[in-house]
Amino acid sequence: MRGSSLAPTLAPTLANICPAGNWGAAKLIHVPNMLSLGFLCLFLLHQSVSWILQQNETGRIRYNIFCPRYIPSLYGLKVYVLVGSHVLLPCMISVDNASLDLNYLAVIWFFQNKEILRFDNKGFISTSRRSFNQQEVDNGNFSLGLSNVRISDEGVYTCVVVYSPEREDREIRLIVLDPPAITITQKQRNALSCSATGFYPKEINITWISGGEVLSDHVLEKPQQGPDGTYSVSSTLTVPWASGNKTFSCRVQHPSHPQAPQIDFLLEFT
After folding, report:
1. Strand 105-111, strand 155-163: pairing
2. Which segments of the protein form a coiled coil according to its record (predicted)?
3. Residue range 109-137, pLDDT digits in tens
4. Structural domain total, the chain
5. Which helix (H) or strand (E) holds 47?
């Protein structure tokens, strides 16, 4: 190999934790502070490394790391992005002391098995919304930048790096999210409708709440897909008649919201 390796760039960090010869073994490491602990958690989750969190009587945090039997690759990586935003799909190789010899290098990006971007010794082919930073090529960075993300961009992307005679494929699944707009309207004297519109993906759940109790007397329609690919749905709640005023809340659970948003409606009984 000419001064480079197709092993993922996170491998050197993992190698510090699990050096050669320790694959499949357990190793105890110390974490100096909670900030370092947070970064380590993210790293270990990304690398699919098993661990056990321990804390001694002095409050010092340590991890018991169970090293994998191989250096993990980026196969199966999922990237989540909101509609209309910019996203970077990672594809990097570790470059040793020498720069890459571009005469032996070819990088091809595929989307759903269709070629969308290419870089080789014959030139560079890209599109208006898909590109990568050519200045980073010498550093082994071929990450794909995708701007103004659309629902149609969702799917499997494959980065193929050929540094003759070696080849490495990286598969990344892009998952596009579009949050719903939520409204409550009074349909009839004793009926409320909660509508969620313009959301993606299709999976959604609507819950009605009043006085701290979850209400069951409601009907959730089947989500309908619009021309732009987003979905709309409504849930109708039958309200038992009562005296005075009462607040009803509609809570919507959707993958685009880490916390389910909730809106309230004050129904006046007269």
Report:
1. antiparallel
2. none
3. 999 999 998 888 776 666 778 888 777 77
4. 3
5. helix 34-47
